[in-house]
């Protein structure tokens, strides 16, 4: 939900940072923006549309030359929101793990039933708190919503269930839906009785479900990716994945989903957003994997199946890099995600180099086969692509090139992929006697 008061404060602060304003001028500026916003909302515009038009008009009337007003505002909003998402995700994950740390029989029926009926209550109160803070809810609203959550947690855990415990299971099944409706009241605030605004919450719920499924699928891909690369060097990370990555990751998925749906007006394409969420996580995984190889001295590519899997991994990493690049604006300056991209490309280059060395060894010791030559060619093609991206990024950082040149290189390089694919499709059968 768009927060008008917060956005006006952020914009006025931005103006004050660029132009020396007295306290009186700041107050007058704020009043002017509020007045124009109110006039525009009476004409049928939403608060957000009215606000963006109002600050443009005020800037023109006062002769302000401000750089990327909206971008700065959203940047301030995002930093605060992202920090809250990270912090609340860690708290929710820890609360979810806490019972297993203190419960003596954490594999028994009683423990399983307790986790079943409380699982949503480890995370949804924090979702509510996040929305309350974001929307600057009144103290009464905060106490009411959090009080309802507290009473719910207390009652479903102190009821003396007996026998087959059908009602306990039913409570566990229905409590997430009840609490999600409480999230709806939090989301709508003082407008929760308005039928049209309730329909907005229904849309919010639908979008949250779709985005949440997509982000969770990304988490599963990341988990499989980590499991695959570490199993190639005989390091068992399955317990870490199931007991920590999935638990903390699922909590993060829920909070990130709420954050993304609230800011959906900023998203032109959801795929680059997913790439930006997961590219740092893939980078961390790849760096840890390379460090593990150095410390253990184990070669992950002695197995042919792992070699094929690593080629697929390189394609996935390249896709992540390209999606992040596609999310950039033409005039956007170098940002943190660009440096993460460089790190991701560098890690992929190292792994591609290891794969190429192993393929050459196989070719020299076991002879030439169609599969080995295809793997060799594909690794060369990807290696040149990654090296080209690194070279272009270095030139951009030094101010000797623009992102337009990087994009031109990447789009032109598609011809190389097309040529290689055509070579494998049409020439390989001839070279290897249709075998």
Task: Please provide a written account of the structure.
- There is one protein chain.
- It is built from 15 helices and no strands.
- The protein is flat and about 75 Å long.
- Mean pLDDT is 82; it is low at 66-77.
- Helix 4 (69-102) packs antiparallel against helix 6 (124-134), helix 12 packs antiparallel against helix 13 (336-366) and helix 13 runs antiparallel to helix 14 (370-397).
- 80% of the residues lie in helices and 0% in strands.
Helical residue percent band: over 70%
Structural class of the helices, strands and pairings? mainly alpha
What is the count of β-strands? Answer: 0
Largest sheet: none
Shape: flat
Please, how many helices? 15
Radius of gyration in whole Å, from Cα?
A: 27 Å
The parts where pLDDT drops under 50 for at least 5 residues are 66-77
Beta-strand percentage?
under 5%
Q: How is the quaternary structure best described? A: single chain
Kindly report the average pLDDT value.
Answer: 82
**SSE run:** HHHHHHHHHHHHHHH
| Distance between the amino and carboxyl termini | 61 Å
In short:
This protein is an all-alpha fold.
SSE layout and pairings?
Layout: H1 4-18, H2 23-42, H3 47-62, H4 69-102, H5 109-118, H6 124-134, H7 139-158, H8 166-188, H9 195-231, H10 238-262, H11 270-296, H12 304-326, H13 336-366, H14 370-397, H15 403-431
Helix pairs in contact: 1-2, 1-3, 1-4, 2-3, 4-6, 4-10, 5-8, 6-7, 6-8, 7-8, 9-10, 9-11, 11-12, 11-13, 12-13, 12-14, 13-14, 14-15
